[in-house]
Write a structure and sequence with these properties.
By secondary structure, the protein is of the alpha/beta class. Helices cover 60% and strands 9% of the residues. Helix 9 packs across helix 14. The relative contact order is 0.12.
């Protein structure tokens, strides 16, 4: 899957340094100049160095300036075809009428789900599902609003025959890792990826050589740095006071479904048949 330059920049912009923000904003506001000019001239216009631009492109997941131009061409063509380009923060506001907010909700959910698809490559997702498939037991850890997508992923993986453990009591959840070993996997769902309890749990897993998958925001955070794999969701809100923070869970739930679909297709020639077997087994248990 090709990198969406504009989406990636918007997702790291909140946490960029001042010099990085200058580069980011120049690319967003002057994509054609980036296409037309060599890196030295762009650096001079921004008031930075070519090395700084190179570091910034790598932060976007792009190897070099030449590759940046290739991705920009694709995005400029797409932009020209779009009738309504917007950002969630610009569109969703308490100042708008209730009727407008209803319409904006749908547009915002669509933008978050689309963004989740754009910032996660198929290659990365397939590495994730292969490691999940190879895991003996899958442990989960989540706090607050992230419990919902974590629980959803647990249920979906159980339908596919995976052994899963998720205790919503955080203390018991952490203690559970005492039983885990390198054959197992820990999945941590945390948008912010910086809470002490989240980082402490991640470090416990790493000390025991347990593979760690995080479902977290796109921007750099401590959890992502500790993870073997990360599936990212759009970094759409500065804090919980922002109205757009309501839509984080849609990104997380989209990530969950990407894992579920990928794993189902990996392990079963006919996922529908296997899921039906699971449902019938559950129905028999309900009878008793």
């Amino acid at each position: 899957m090709a990198i969406n330059v504009f989406t990636n920049i918007e997702n790291i912009l909140l946490e960029c340094s001042e010099s990085e923000k200058k580069i980011a904003l120049f690319i967003l506001n002057n994509p054609r100049k980036v296409l037309e000019l060599p890196v030295k001239e762009v650096a001079a216009m921004i008031g930075t160095s070519t090395a700084s631009i190179s570091r910034f492109t790598r932060k976007l997941g792009i190897r070099n300036y030449k590759e940046l131009k290739q991705y920009l061409i694709v995005e400029i063509v797409k932009q020209e075809k779009e009738v309504d380009k917007f950002s969630i923060e610009d569109k969703l506001s308490w100042d708008n009428s209730y009727e407008d907010m209803r319409k904006q909700m749908l547009a915002s959910i669509n933008a978050v789900c689309k963004g989740t698809l754009e910032i996660n490559s198929v290659e990365n997702l397939m590495k994730v599902v292969k490691d999940i498939n190879n895991a003996n037991i899958i442990y989960f850890f989540a706090l607050g609003s992230s419990v919902l997508p974590a629980r959803d992923l647990q249920h979906k993986l159980m339908r596919l025959g995976k052994r899963c453990i998720f205790l919503e009591d955080n203390n018991y959840g952490i203690q559970n890792l005492i039983q885990a070993d390198e054959r197992d996997m820990l999945i941590i769902v945390s948008f912010d990826g910086s809470q002490n309890r989240v980082i402490g749990t991640a470090k416990k897993a790493k000390n025991k050589n347990i593979k760690l998958l995080s479902i977290t925001k796109f921007a750099s955070n401590r959890l992502k740095g500790l993870s073997d794999h990360s599936i990212c969701v759009p970094n759409i809100a500065v804090d919980d006071a922002s109205l757009s923070s309501l839509f984080r869970r849609y990104g997380q739930l989209t990530a969950v479904d990407l894992i579920y679909i990928g794993l189902a297709k990996l392990i079963y020639p006919d996922p529908n048949e296997e899921i039906e077997k699971y449902n019938k087994t559950v129905e028999k248990i309900d009878i008793f």
